[in-house]
Amino acid sequence: MRLVNHERHAMDLRTTPVHLGVGSRAKPVEGFTWDSQMLQAYSVADAADGAEGRMVMLFDGDGLGDHWESHPAGDELVVGLSGPVTVTRDVDGVPDRVLLGPGGATISPARVWHVVDMEGPTSILAITATPSTNHRPRTDTRPAAGVGTPSPEEAS
């Protein structure tokens, strides 16, 4: 995996996400895969951008998301590109569902657990604050007992 300084050809955001960094820099992340070693290497490579760094990526799918996630470093923007998408957030123990069609978007605030369900062949664009992202297996409608939006005391 490497952050490329100057990309001169078209890239596929499904396989080559782009890192947006401090100073309005945009660098393709070549060789990216979704495994713990790669995520650690990406965290090291973009550490200088801290909470200001973002990853931009496209996802294609069909079906229920297999995990809940939360992003302590910042908000996540999810944009529906094709097909119906439901983003469910756990807001104080209550599911908050947002249905997106093509061109629809929603923001999951920092630290809020959420899951994305693609209802039929679907594509989404996600812009994510990735440092310290948390994942939990999806075994129920909520991320886990006692886990949800932090209280104001926990958030500070």
Structure characterization notes:
The structure is a single chain. This protein is mainly beta and 156 residues long. It has helices spanning 36-45, 152-155, and strands spanning 2-3, 18-21, 25-30, 54-63, 67-70, 76-82, 85-91, 94-100, 105-108, 114-128, 134-137. Helix content is 9%, strand content 45%. Strands 1, 2, 3, 4, 6, 7, 8, 9 and 10 form a nine-stranded antiparallel beta sheet that branches. The chain has a two-stranded antiparallel sheet with strand order 5-11. A hairpin with a 2-residue loop joins strand 7 (85-91) and strand 8. Residues 146-156 have low confidence and may be disordered.
Write the topology of this structure:
Elements: E1 2-3, E2 18-21, E3 25-30, H1 36-45, E4 54-63, E5 67-70, E6 76-82, E7 85-91, E8 94-100, E9 105-108, E10 114-128, E11 134-137, H2 152-155
Antiparallel strand pairs: 1-3, 2-3, 2-4, 4-10, 5-11, 6-9, 6-10, 7-8, 7-10
Short description:
The protein has helices at residues 36-45, 152-155, and strands spanning 2-3, 18-21, 25-30, 54-63, 67-70, 76-82, 85-91, 94-100, 105-108, 114-128, 134-137.
**For the terminal residues, how far apart are their CA atoms?**
34 Å
Radius of gyration: 16 Å
Helix-strand string: EEEHEEEEEEEEH
Specify the biggest β-sheet. 9 strands, antiparallel
Morphology? globular
Strand portion: 35-45%
Count all strands and give the number.
11
Mean pLDDT score: 83
Uncertain residue ranges? 146-156
Count every helix, treating DSSP H or I runs of 4 or more residues as helices: 2
Helix residue percentage? under 10%
What structural category characterises the helix and strand content? mainly beta
